């Protein structure tokens, strides 16, 4: 345990509580804080949303099971957990015989700063607003394709709509989203 003079991050405090007392409340806080960040990390490295959620679940389960191995003298809590995420992502990529993205070779380092988190939250809010402005049929197709991670054919089968209709609605919806979100990046 670090000396009393050293300030511990919330992540470290939560992880130590999980390690030392199997504290489920602390684990919940750890999960709530890290899960969206880990999902973003995995998705930025080429994993689909649904699979990224599975990876995050595996990572957090590993954190719970192996918390006893965490040593705050050797690594920060965030670095320790991101290393688990990186390794799990590489395992999944190897299992699928996909090339491992170069970015995963790098240590994710420190947590994103507050301005990065705020920027992502603002972008997400603008995207939600733009999605709400789409026609309901276009929004439904885009949500199924990009949030539901379904192929155009799967959407066609699920909805009973012709494949051309599904593709047209997605294309038109994406065009409108581009217009609405112009200047965001």
Automatic annotation (TrEMBL):
The record ties this protein, via InterPro entries, to: RNA_pol_sigma-70-like (IPR039425), RNA_pol_sigma-70_dom (IPR014284), RNA_pol_sigma70_ECF_CS (IPR000838), RNA_pol_sigma70_r2 (IPR007627), RNA_pol_sigma70_r4_t2 (IPR013249), RNA_pol_sigma_r2 (IPR013325), RNA_pol_sigma_r3/r4-like (IPR013324), WH-like_DNA-bd_sf (IPR036388)
Q: Which molecular function term from Gene Ontology is one that the record holds?
A: DNA binding
Q: Which residues form the RNA polymerase sigma factor 70 region 4 type domain?
A: 126-177
Q: Which residues form the RNA polymerase sigma-70 region domain?
A: 34-98
- CDD domains noted in UniProt: Sigma70_r4 (cd06171)
Query: Which is one Pfam family of this protein?
Result: Sigma70_r2
* Keywords attached to this entry: DNA-binding, Sigma factor, Transcription, Transcription regulation
Q: Which PROSITE patterns match?
A: SIGMA70_ECF
Q: Which GO terms describe its biological process?
A: DNA-templated transcription initiation
Family statement drawn from the similarity comment of this UniProt entry: Belongs to the sigma-70 factor family. ECF subfamily.
- The protein's name: RNA polymerase sigma factor
